[in-house]
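Cont'd.
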Amino acid sequence: MILFDKVSKRYGNGREALNNVSFNIHNGEMVFLTGRSGAGKSTVLKLIALLERPTRGAVLVNGRNTQTLKARHIAAFRRRIGVVFQDHKLLADRPVYDNVALPLAVAATPLKEIDKRVRAALDQVGLLGKERSLPLELSVGEQQRVGIARAVVSKPPLLIADEPTGNLDPDLSLEVMRLFRRFQDVGVTVVVATHDLHLVREFGERVITLENGQVHGDPVDPLPSVVASR
Amino acid sequence: MSLGVSAGRHLQALVGSLGRLARSPLASFMTVLVIALALALPAALKVFVTNAQAATGNFASAVDVSVFLKTDVPLAKAQQLARAAQQRADVAEVTLIPADKGLEDFKSYSGFGAALAALKENPLPHVLHVRPRAAASSAASLEALRGYFAAWPEVDLVQVDSEWVMRFNAILEVLRRLLLIAAALLGVGVLAVIGNTIRLEIQARRAEIEVIKLVGGSNAYVRRPFLYTGVLYGLCGALIAWGIIALIVTVLGDSVATLARLYGSRYVLTGLAPEEGGALVAAGVVLGWLGAWISAARHLARIEPRA
């Protein structure tokens, strides 16, 4: 599902965010990405969502090598990934319904199908009935759940979340994580970047720890290095 | 993508663009007005040239060749010459003005009535007023006609007022070229206005564009509403320009008709023909689309989502 093969990422300002990082995440896995801020968590997620490309090494997502993906295929590539942000990235001037419908609208989904799926997604995050609210009329926790509904509405096989609980109190954080767990239960691969170690321990899932741009601890999965030539 | 879904998406984008224009009516109106004025100027010039051409077409066919016969030519001979001239293919009408009638007219119109009455003899010759056919009103044809009459031994003088026709045609040609230049320059101006408006709108909606790209919106999807906005600007601008022309024609119509009447013409000012108006609207739409496309291509590519 996701394969990082000796990946290094150096930004334009010379900062090396990742240094020779390798790991493999399987289909249907739920993985926590932890580490201090600046350790490279966000960079890993950016490389997965193709917001950045690696300086060295290869990143394979959903079977596609992000290094060789043509610009015109990026949109279709991103449609197969649901992304949740710490700051939600909702459109403030559009109601909840429109925000959640966006990934379906850009993929030319018929309106009837959009309606069905948006309601299903809102139901999953417990926000049915808030369709017409504007994001700012909702609480922070609710806004985060709108963001999650938007990430899963097109049923992507991969869900990535960058500090999804960063602005939430412990109860809400737990609730959001349980939500991710439920998506994993139906076969979605989930990658969550978080520095909330308490939460991570509570869930007992696989943890990849980054430190100074390198994998510091990943007990489960050593990389089969043959894929490097792919 | 099925056709139905595709049409639905276009409709969605169109409605969205309309909605955004309506949300800031004053700013949208100002932009549309600038476009309308830029389109109206060459269109007005076009109307002017068309009318000037039509009007002088009338005048040109009304250009008379005056053939002054020698004073000793008898009236019967003059009538015979008139009949002969009438046979020519390039002559529409020949009017013989006998010397007596000429003198009478001169007395009543010139104000020298008393002085002329003192004359013992009529100093005026018989005159043939020859009106060429419309097809033969070019300078060359008139010159041929002049040569024909000048060769007659009975003819004293042939007067053709063709010089002003040539000058006028030359002026029209200059105006026509000016029209093309103005249309080209103002077309570029419309492109710039629309491109700039679209650029500002792209900047204002940067966050939204980032999110749309983030959830997998293709460049075509992101670009579509801006293209519709550009087309709407061009369309509205062209329609208003057409209205401005119609208004100008209406306002000027009366005074032009009066002016024409004073010159003995029943010329009526004409506005844009439907096909010319259609071309104006088409030009507006194409310029709007093109301006938006150029701007969107340049500025949308730079907006990439940041996490």
